Amino acid sequence: MNNKIKTSLSFRKYPSTTALQCFETAARHLSFTNAAQEMHMTQSAISKQVAQLEEMLNLSLFYRTPHRISLTPAGKTYYLEVLDILKHIEAATTSLMSNSDNSEVLKIVSHPTFCARWLMPALKGFSQTHPLINLNIKELAGPFFSEDQNVDVAFLYGDGIWAGMEAIKLFDEYNVAVCHPDYLKDKTPCASNIDKCTLLQLSSRPSAWYEYFRQQDISMDGTFVGPSFDTFHTTISAALLGYGIALVPLRLVAPELQSGALVTAWSYAAKGRGAYYMSYPLSLGNSHKLKVILEWISAYLERSNNHEQELNFIS
Fold it and tell me: CA angle, 84 as apex, 152 and 51 as ends, to 5°?
């Protein structure tokens, strides 16, 4: 039995890419004829490729009748796996063909609102200054797990501790309550009429409003009334439309406060429990692309006046 297992593991026979493409196309169309048209092959050639694939797998992938074909349970499972494999091959090939031989790809992960409102301005001009480093930016709405991500640099909010990652603190978080200027017209003074205000909620931070008032030694009983959103971006958009008061990081809403599109409902900034970090895998070491992005972000922080504005607000 052991010899048999050893033999099966050491001898592997893989199907050709052509066979997988023929199977995927036939499975998607549920027709050898339509698959042949898309693949620019004959129907018999498609059928032969699929039959050879089934013979190699020793499994039937299709039920065949005179007028139609349909996937077997094994065929349905295999179709999803093959589709994923072909997408990976396409992405890898396209990426390689679109980049020059001397270029590098810098894979970045960031929370969506932070990406749009801080990271994009921070990276302005990066590609022109470093044309041989191609940015691949992915937005991550949920929690970050380093073992599940193929990433070079991650811009994250938290405590700075992620397994296998080195973290560099960018800045602390200060949250402010903001709303459309017209929202407070019939609610002045709003601080004494909290029950008349709609407090917009962020679903990932259900206790944020309680923490905001607790830091001011204001005791709040019961629950807050207001719609809940997945991201700060949508919460800010709702505040701009007059839905209510949003509790958001000051840095992420600074442009609206400067322009007057939003105003602060209360002159207080609550320090968040976490901070924003730039993190990278320990295994990346001192690679060239890592050094470049670290220097770029460091320079942006030094010349940015956001920090000064934030200190002025909370002082």
Answer: 150
